[in-house]
Write a structure and sequence with these properties.
Length: 405
Amino acid sequence: MTTRTPRTSARRDQLTAIAAGLFARDGYHNVTVGDIAAAAGLSGPAIYRHFPGKQAILAEVVRSGFDEMAQVLAADLAGMSDPAERLRRTYRDLAAFVIRRPEFGVMWRREYRHLAPEDAADLAKRMGEATDAVVAELRALRPELEPADAELVAWAALSVMGSISDHRVRLPRAAFEELLAGIAMDVVSVEFGELGSDNRPDEPAAGDRKEQILAAAARLFWDRGYHEVTLDEIGAAAGIAGPSVYSHFAGKTELLRTITERIGERLRQDLAESYAAAPDLRAPSAALTVLGDLTTRYVSTVLSSRDLVAAYFTEGHNLPDRDRAETRRFQRAYTARWCGLLGAANPSASPEEVRIRVLAAFAVVNDTARTRRLLERPGLAGRLRALMLAVLLTPVSEARDVNRR
């Protein structure tokens, strides 16, 4: 067993930080131990004096983040008698954490599948315990919330925090922390109202063989990661021999490209249909109408295409460079349309706040669609729409100057 000295601890911390940045940028499977060593100015074998392998480095990246997050929760939830103040302080400190370590959101949302089973189980247990603590605070603040709704709200507020890993919009630190905490508290204050017993759209059954293959690939990519899945496994899941996949797709790359194109087509169609219903957007009320319609369509598209959406967001970094660049161009253009609507609906908000709110609203829905135990509850679509609107639409009277220092 290696003796931990201050020097070896500092080196482990350095390697962990370097690996986190590389994993977040390029994806776990696209980074080698040699890449990590080179970025640290070491030889490849030198890494093994600190970690037994790449998977152990990933576990340390995620574990260290959880340790820091758990300390924030333990300290904040133990103080102050007012649950609203405890929650606001907790979200402010969590915001400081994610701003300082934006790669942590990527690790938990995308790369946790590559952890060793015992590490994944331990970290899932710890995340569950942290969530339970926040749910208890939410129910103290809002005892009328059903336990399932309190859990959904708690996860939505965490998605707001994690959303900053999806973009590069940055503000002065104090203002950024205040904005994220404020959006999280907007989520905490959501009113669900009467939403019916179940308005979650079903994922349509795949029709022809090509669609069956695509659906099988998306599900396997989501479950295990693009690099861990073979064409034989995709074929077996679709009820055919692996080589028969080539009758429909050139290979895994084309499958992943088709998944991204399919989601892009659906989102473009949603935009076109929403804008067609209110072509004159000069009035804030018209922009609000279109925004409301778009939230309904976005939730429906994500929930009715869960496997495709999950693969789209978790595996897009594995596309060839040209396809990845095209996907990013589309995502920027799509986000810009939402930002234009929100800016027209709330002219007092800065462009930075508008973009941060739009991306946070997307994250609330996308993260829920990738969390299977949240998907089966009644009225989910209506609840997600209410959560998106809570993130997007803060009353003008509560607008903050997010650019102040």
